[in-house]
Prior knowledge:
By secondary structure, the protein is α/β, with parallel strands linked by helices. The chain has a single domain (55-253), classed as Leucine Aminopeptidase, subunit E, domain 1, CATH 3.40.220.10. 29% of the residues lie in helices and 16% in strands. The chain contains 7 helices and 8 strands; from the N terminus they run αβαββαααββαβαββ. An 8-stranded mixed sheet has the order 1-4-5-3-6-8-2-7. The longest helix is centred in the C-terminal third of the chain and has 29 residues, at 160-188. It is globular, with a radius of gyration of 17 Å. The N and C termini lie far apart (37 Å). Residues 74-76, 87-89, 93-99, 101, 153, 202-209, 252-254 line the site of the ligand Nc1ncnc2c1ncn2[C@@H]1O[C@H](COP(=O)(O)OP(=O)(O)OC[C@H]2O[C@H](OP(=O)(O)O)[C@H](O)[C@@H]2O)[C@@H](O)[C@H]1O. Residues 55-255 form the Macro domain. This is ADP-ribose 1''-phosphate phosphatase. InterPro entries: ADP-ribose_metab_enzymes, Macro_dom, Macro_dom-like.
Amino acid sequence: xxxxxxxxxxxxxxxxxxxxxxxxxxxxxxxxxxxxxxxxxxxxxxxxxxxxxxxxxxxxxxxxxxxxxxxxxxxxxxxxxxxxxxxxxxxxxxxxxxxxxxxxxxxxxxxxxxxxxxxxxxxxxxxxxxxxxxxxxxxxxxxxxxxxxxxxxxxxxxxxxxxxxxxxxxxxxxxxxxxxxxxxxxxxxxxxxxxxxxxxxxxxxxxxxxxxxxxxxxxxxxxxxxxxxxxxxxxxxxxxxxxxxxxxxxxxxxx
Length: 255
Ligand SMILES: Nc1ncnc2c1ncn2[C@@H]1O[C@H](COP(=O)(O)OP(=O)(O)OC[C@H]2O[C@H](OP(=O)(O)O)[C@H](O)[C@@H]2O)[C@@H](O)[C@H]1O
């Protein structure tokens, strides 16, 4: 994991953009494959390195935004090929709250997350993401997307502002870099497994991490995404084949 990320894309996030909307469509292959490796970011992206400069993104009519669609239900009832986004500490612990439910439902994903934490430091993990593909040996079809939003947990958890900054960087990296990279690889070699389809998450950070849900929602919906690389199966296009989508994250909560 290379040097710590610098949070330079916040100016870009604060710019107002026209919001274009569409929904994502998904298709998944249900083949069984050898266990693919989890994907972690290899380099730190700063705003300056984004594919478009802030001005270009400002004027670019195709600049997209994430949108959160809220509903009640159980996050673990997601359909195959869904990516479940999970707010994690950097200490290798899924000990309470929804983390414990993730550990119980996806023990091999927990082992992958724990091993990732063991080979990195909180300082290099914070604000990054880890895409964990389904474990075909367990006949799983759900992706886990760890977003490292606090260095520690409990009383040592980071401040609300620090968690929000890390959330912005980690969710942007997961959805803008790791998912397209994975889906492109699957397009090139179906032996790698199935493509990521829908994005689901609970009201991350709002329980044990103590961040009001509306604050996290605001940060996630301010994430702009320069035109998503044309990766079939990740977005619907209009009749003209134009991809004009906001990527929708389904936020599923029990209350
Ligand atoms: N089955 C279910 N379906 C849908 N929604 C569900 C649900 N179960 C709970 N929720 C809701 O999901 C939100 C988040 O609630 P949480 O407090 O758990 O997570 P958080 O993101 O605030 O905090 C992360 C730290 O907590 C953990 O604990 P450890 O440090 O490991 O001990 C981690 O590892 C981190 O460190 C709340 O709205 C819950 O109502």
